[in-house]
## 1
Amino acid sequence: MPDYRPKYPKINPEVEINPNHPNLTIWHNKIDCCMFIGVHCHQANLSLKIIRGGTSCYTIAMCAQAGHEDAMLSFRDASVEKIMRLADTVKRLKGTVQPRLTSAKNGASS
């Protein structure tokens, strides 16, 4: 029977297929904090569950509706004033706050 497998090199799914795997993106890029702005609630909730379950990344969600229970910080009724106030606070605290888990390179969260 002939071999119908492709002859080209195999792709690495962790590098090539990240949109559906936010935890892989976070692991490879060493992201400490991620922010969800304008993401549909169902997609945001699914991504937040994956991120919370597999990484130590700090998650912030800005929602125009009820907020997201799986985010570590969730803004309800996000407005320009709230976003600017958050940006000012982040600038003020940048470099002074240590990550929650500094040894979580393998994605284990506690």
Note: The CA atoms of residues 64 and 77 lie 4 Å apart.
## 2
Amino acid sequence: MVKDKRNYNVFFNVHTVSGIVITIALFICFFAGGIALFYKNINNWEKNHLSQEIGHKAYEINYEKALETVKNAGYNMQDRNFDFSIKTIEGEDYLSITSRVGKPKASGGQEAEEKVENKVNSKEKDSLNTKNQSDESQEKQTSVTAKHTAKQSGFNPKGNIAMVLDLVTYKPLKNRPKNDTPRRGRGKPQELGTFIYHLHYFDQLPVIGVYLSGFVSLFFLVAIVTGVIVHWKKIVDNFFTFRLKNSLKLLWTDAHTALGVIGLPFQFIFAVTGAFFGLASLFILLNTLVVYGGDQKKFIADVAPAFVSVEKAGIPTKNQANLNTLALNTKKELQLGNQYSLTAKILNYGDENARFIMSFRDNVGKNFYGNGFIMYDLSNGAILNKKAIDAPNYDLATSLETFRKLHFATYGGYFLKLIYFLLSLLTCFVILSGVMIWLEVRDNKKYAKKHKFNRNVGALFIGNCMGLFPAIAYFFCLSKVIPESPARFSIMEQSFYIFWFSYTLYAYWIKDLHTINKHALFIGGVLGIAIPVCNGLTTGHWFWYSLQKGLTDSFFVDLAWLLVGIVSLLVAGFAKRLVSKRKKKTHRPLKPVNTTGA
């Protein structure tokens, strides 16, 4: 019995410590992550774009013409690796072509070529409205003069390539001038939904952010396992127990246990997948060293066969297979419809060992096996390797794809994403209730010396967590109020952090948890209702007209914020201060003493 009691205390303390340490970070992961499930819809809402049809006829892309455009720009094509992907910019699809060759020697105009990124800069977006509409003769004339102007401007034909082409004419967008506003750092988002998506794994913290999210998920997994062990014997009884009229400690404990059990499978999935994605590079390193004996190529061949590297033969090919023919053949080989996104690669272009790899991912989410690829030998057009879209291959690559679908809810449509979102909010409540239990346990004479410290910690924890709700609502309002400019998103981002930090300081100053929660819900509710109003006033897209205009995402985002705002105001208005029975007894007035002897 003593041993069982000791083990119970050990697991209970581990559960408490592991949960408290990661409170703020875990709350951010789930709250921002729940919203980030709809980040593409939020991006469409921000830009007032029509909802795009899922998928693209990637097999109908004219790869030969696209490469001809690159060649006419003056680049050296031999032995290059090319990456192709579909980019949606300003509501239209474009073909992105990149080729990274490492850092070349610095030359006059090389700064613009140094970084090859997937994001298209603001000037490239502006150029969508000023596309070159010249005829074919002008295009040929441009290709002739390209090399001459390249030499004069310090252009490096062997340097990095980053081009975006029109999918009809295959003409490039105009290049950004050197004196243009510098681009933001690599990987930093320029859209509201994408920013929230990056926030949920702390990508705003350079280098360490993603690892921090991985370790937070790992601690969360420990908290889940120890929590189940602590409550295992009474997990069923406690689930149906909700003591509203007892002490606050029991109230928060019952809420923590019952809601924690409801979301347990969901939380376990996110703890495992979150730890994997956050610490993926460490897992890859360990697997490569232990399982594959340090053979990185063999590891990549098993995990991501579509991304293998191929050694150059050093012999130029005489007859290279037609890329367009191979792309059309892929439609039959993989039984493709029009519901799959594409990335394509060419390895060692113009070499005897040249490869053409097309990868497809299911955007609809019908099953866990919604990814496929095919690899061609460009010297003869032969298929070297392939995986059909719906092929249930139980290999490591498919396992990783399963992790991705479980984490991002891409296997059940919007209904599943809504369930994930609600479970994320429920988990946020479980996190906050855990903090409340920790505070209530320490609100007695035993911890009198640490009362001030515990009160400060509670105010910071609750204030930072609850402050994220109105801060994000404020961010949404700013996205409609601040006009377009190169510094627009930087201003929005800084304002978001200032608002969030200010509310945390306010919470630390007042140190009253009831007021902190109530004010966060009230401010968030007001801003939530203001979001569709700001959208309507600045763009004219009132949500009751959005569906008629085809702005489905705009309609649902506005409606969702309106409902969230109303519910938040109702909760803030009707919420009563909870007082424990112990404090009620302490403040109970004493009965007058009878001195008459009667």
Note: The CA atoms of residues 321 and 381 lie 5 Å apart.
## 3
Amino acid sequence: MAKLLVVSVVMSFWLFSLNNENADISSLRERIQQQIRGEYHLGDVDLYYPGASLGIVEVDPETTDADSALHAADIAMYQEKKHKQKTPFVAHPALHS
């Protein structure tokens, strides 16, 4: 039976994925982090973003409603945030030659 993966990200957006096999949640977490962390250049400011806290849960869509799934993902995200090493954003004026 397909399970639904629900991912809550600290910036309040959600990803949903149907999964027919056992999910490798740590692999999914790393793939998402690779897409969002990094250096960003915004006008005259260079920004290093270390990534977001992610809450990933697997639910059965036939027995779990959307609100319950999102609530469970939010709880997982805040648990990760509580235990995650704090890495600050780093922003500085761009040094363009």
Note: The first strand starts at residue 3 and ends at 9.
